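Usage example:
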Amino acid sequence: MKITGVELRRIAMPLVAPFRTSFGTETSRDILLVRVVTPDAEGWGECVAMAEPLYSSEYTDGAAEVIRRFLLPALPRNLDVHDVGRALEPIKGHRMAKAALETAVLDAQLRAAGESFGRFLGASRTRVPCGVSVGIMDSIPQLLDAVEGYVDEGYVRIKLKIEPGWDVEPVRAVRERFGDDLLLQVDANAAYALTDAPRLARLDAFDLLLIEQPLANDDLVQHAKLAQRLRTPICLDESIESAEHAAAAIALGSCSIVNIKPGRIGGYLEARRIHDLCRANGIAVWCGGMLETGLGRAANVALAALPGFTLPGDTSGSRRYYATDVTEPFELVDGHLEVPAGPGLGVEPIPAVLDEVTTASEWITV
Ligand code: OSB
Ligand code: MG
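Running the assembly step on the lines above writes:
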């Protein structure tokens, strides 16, 4: 496949409600979209980097810069998607930027071949069960209202964002209100230290599915120590940036569950490798999210349909995030999203909507 050129498009997507985590509050997403054009087809990749480097070191402007300055010049003129990772390997890090570019190449290649992401990745289901990630709120009544709304919409699993000062009480309140059958988990986004182990152990009383990323991004050793002190299973998100990290975490006993976010780890091919590795080691995985539009969501839903994804993902319906999505909206049916079956991502940006939200566009001839 030969790439003619690449468009770097920036879109501004206001969220339906502010989303607060331990690292900050988002009210709108500033998203980089990569469009790869070939003579036969074009493909889209949504970069999950956020406007500021608070979740990880990547950020939107930096991703655009590294793509235009280093990644595109490193791509061979004629390529297959399997060549992309190897060609980009000399450039360190920047996995979200690499993932966006590789995903756009993969989408173009699959559209040209008439094959869907789900089929290419090895999906074993036609629909996936959906969870929802609920941000930190100003009060417990406000949180209970939000959770009630999501439960009524059919979400099969609730994830509460936590931080020191917003942990045991909100979890207890949600458990008491919605009962023991609710699938419930928490995500700390690295807000705690190992010295908080006694506090985190108080969450053991609430039968959580998992606690996601309690400690620092780069601390597999302390996560292993914490795992010895909690009954709640530890799931890693930020700490796992590659299959090698996943292998190290498994060997150290740092986690028993992995959140797979293709952007964080450099793309869908690496996501599949981590899925395979975890499955062979008896480690459950689920598909995380980064508040994607329908473009990124389509690929995530396809990935979440692989057989090792045994826990519901953060693959929520479009309207949990955006009043108007850039694609036809993903809508929950009976707590599930359908895996797109059309070629490539199986969804298209709606031109008028895309133009409306576009803030900048740059064409790069390759
Ligand atoms: O840690 O999983 C996270 C959103 C942005 C950055 C990090 C995270 C999240 C979420 C939301 O929890 C997941 C989603 O619904 O897309
Ligand atoms: Mg997380």
